[in-house]
């Protein structure tokens, strides 16, 4: 047994299980078959430091430390492109909106929604998506979100009415929310050190780059072959991202075998959905965000709409739900039950 292997296995007792499972993957560097390098030792030191700060970290939470260049490129490209595609379509819709409005005969009161509904639905469902990903697995949720996003984007291109376009844009936002928390989990589970920093930087950089490309692409396509081709191209790119993700994302990300022989079964995962997720807290927080976003979107269209009864009611209920959420998660903590965002998280320790 090499010194590097000893260093990994001395983190805590479950790590031996995690190390042996990692050796089954050809793209994960087995410590006993490669010469130790300075960079590899530095990454191991990062993992050991992380574990020393959080001694209760389980085996599945220790990063896989993927070092293969092709697998690294696949993961980084996948999480970057999936975020870039969503913002690309936001930019495209913004530029093509006058043409879309004319072609689909969108009423004046609804003209804001094709470009804003996706961000609204994404923000409102992020909490649900993140908690579900914790139970079912980030790789599974990421692949599911990518499949749904491709389908809903294609639906936007095929829409024949304003209602259909707005519906599919909203659903594509839900699909994006399935990908984003899972992408963060995938990065933290797959990389340590500089590779993790690079992956997060690429993921964040994909959003402004995608929006900028969407602005330019929207203008070109609108004046040539039509705005619908922007959605068709994005759907094709999304399918390509799905293929990269299926090949590149390690299945060990969703492996919970270190927690018990039945922890990786779907029965156990569905049981976690019932017992380990604060559905009420997530619902209250999401409802507050949704109502606030709706009210702000309505005001953006016309500041005079702030006097409308629907806008006043939305703002009132949204603000009232904030203290209700704080009280609820506080109650959950006192009773020792799952809380979506524990109040203790904000305490100065």
TrEMBL record:
Residue ranges of the TM segments: 73-92, 112-133, 140-160, 166-187, 199-217, 229-249, 277-299, 311-330
Localization (cell): Membrane
Highest taxon above the source species: Eukaryota
Pfam families: MFS_1
Major facilitator superfamily (MFS) profile domain ranges (all copies): 75-349
Membrane topology value: Multi-pass membrane protein
Name by which UniProt lists this protein: Major facilitator superfamily (MFS) profile domain-containing protein
Main location: membrane
One cellular-component annotation, GO: membrane
UniProt keyword Flavoprotein, yes or no: no
Keyword Transmembrane attributed: yes
GO molecular function: transmembrane transporter activity
Keywords: Membrane, Transmembrane, Transmembrane helix
